[in-house]
Write a structure and sequence with these properties.
Layout: H1 5-27, E1 32-40, E2 46-54, H2 60-69, H3 71-76, E3 88-93, H4 96-122
Parallel strand pairs: 2-3
Antiparallel strand pairs: 1-2
C-alpha cells in the first residue's frame, strides 16, 4: 500500500513555488513559465519540478538551467512545510505540450494524405 504523503507534499510544493517560478519569467526574457507537475520521492528527499516555458526569449533549456542554478533559493521557500528534511529541488522541462502538438501535426498530415488519395480515386 503506497503512502499519499508524497502526493500531498507535491501538491503543497506546487502551490508554494508556482508564483516564485512565474516571477523568474518576468526577470529573464518575459513570456510565461508554468509549474506543470511535481513528483516527490517516497522518502521525501527529492522533488522533481516540471516546467513549461512559453514565449520566453531565452528558450526552455536556458530557463531550466537558470532555475536549477537558483534551486537552493526555491528550496529555502519550502521551509514552512516543516519537514525533517526539506526536499532537494530539481527542475526539468515539461515537453508534454510539444509532444501533443507534434502528434496533432502528424495526424493532420495523415488526414490530408488520406483525403487527397480519396479524391484522386473517386475521380477515376
Amino acid at each position: 500500500m503506497s503512502s499519499f504523503r508524497p502526493e500531498r507534499i507535491a501538491r503543497e510544493i506546487q502551490r508554494m513555488l508556482s508564483q516564485p517560478i512565474s516571477d523568474v519569467a518576468a526577470l529573464h526574457g518575459g513570456g510565461m513559465i508554468t509549474l506543470t507537475d511535481v513528483k516527490v520521492s517516497p522518502d521525501l528527499t527529492v522533488a522533481k519540478l516540471y516546467v513549461s516555458v512559453f514565449g520566453n526569449s531565452l528558450g526552455g533549456e536556458r530557463i531550466i538551467t537558470l532555475l536549477n542554478e537558483q534551486a537552493q533559493h526555491f528550496r529555502s521557500l519550502l521551509a514552512p512545510l516543516r519537514l525533517k528534511v526539506i526536499p532537494t529541488v530539481r527542475f526539468y522541462l515539461d515537453s508534454t505540450l510539444d509532444s501533443m502538438e507534434r502528434i496533432e501535426q502528424l495526424l493532420k498530415q495523415r488526414e490530408a494524405g488520406h483525403s487527397s488519395e480519396g479524391s484522386s480515386s473517386s475521380s477515376e
